[in-house]
């Protein structure tokens, strides 16, 4: 009997019979609070997990979401067993990883897992996240639970509602294990989390705890946010999958903002399949966030397909940066070598591979930071201006300086920066006129050093992550191996035109089904 199925809770296994669907969708646990209402669902919630495959012989806490979901939905695995295995894992490694800032009491976690078990036994299976373990970046509002954002400004702050994404996770039956570390309000100083591949290094920010916790298998889903790369950068550093969907896919309601026109909630997980399941659960139109896209419900897992067969990418045109392109300007030679091998894999899977120029720069602009920094500074200052005037001592010097910088930017400069951004965006995204998806190497490779900096053969040509925030396009970071010199993760990104999230995930998933880089775990 495999480790994945050998811990089934007494009375939960019912042979090979699958759980029947419920008669109605399950409402959020916090009924009556506007922010906590789940997406309106029509019909019966599906019991199907849209991916099939062998469940590996691994500890329960190392399963991917889609694998655990298949076991739970077929009653071969109890959410209680999964929760107990996860709590034991946290007890084993957390003192070294430091992913959590507020772990929830074990009794509370197990009580939620028992509720999930009972619901499933009664036939009330909520879907692929039912019983799945979650860590929340500590800028997601949680009703009745401290949400501080690693900031003295919000020390002891207890929201009276769940953020929309949190409410939808709960409505999907997910088990929240606690709040995990972030840099100060998603910018400035780093959190205390360590990189599980090398505990003397940082996972990077700002979704530090989410990245560290996923890499250390302390939960299956780490909810993060991304304004300039705060999901995909840490994901690259710790060798996991980090997905930032199209802008407006996931509601920002009930999340501390950094720069609202570039903030993207998303997830850090072990695979592209997992990412699709998470966004399907939390994404969708939210009347409490007017910036959400007018999509009632996402079905990315269904749209990306199961990538079965020898050539699952037949018909997909994948762009690869031409020699000398901005997107190839990364510091590490091993990163480029791993990317070249990844291109060969993608081609072997049936994709039409086409060389493209990324159009990441405009005439007269040496970096997108010339307008990215202005937009971010002003939007940070707009949110924190009153706190700067009344409680500046509650901000770290680094964070306070960022707020001050935004206050000092004249209004016409912000307007002009947004105008340039729009012109740049239209030009940048025009590369998708000829391709479906672009893949390119990531930038923070071989792990950020504990004292800062990146092991480099050459300077970087500029951020490979903030371009996807500025454009609002979906992008997913996936591991491509380990460096020979330092045995640290290597990574690439798959990105697509806004709204084509399933295509970006399809390419990432096909690559992951043909390779085993995403299965690597650090030896803690």
Put the structure in a nutshell.
With 524 residues, the chain is of the alpha/beta class.
Fold and architecture overview:
The protein is of the alpha/beta class and 524 residues long. 33% of the residues lie in helices and 12% in strands. It contains 14 helices and 11 strands. The protein has helices at residues 65-73, 79-97, 106-121, 164-171, 208-215, 232-238, 272-282, 300-304, 333-348, 369-390, 397-407, 411-429, 466-471, 501-514; strands spanning 100-103, 133-137, 175-180, 221-226, 241-244, 264-269, 317-321, 352-356, 437-441, 475-482, 489-496. Strands 1-3-2-4-6-5-10-11-9-7-8 form an 11-stranded mixed β-sheet, sandwiched between helices. A hairpin with a 6-residue loop joins β10 and β11. The longest helix has 22 residues, at 369-390.
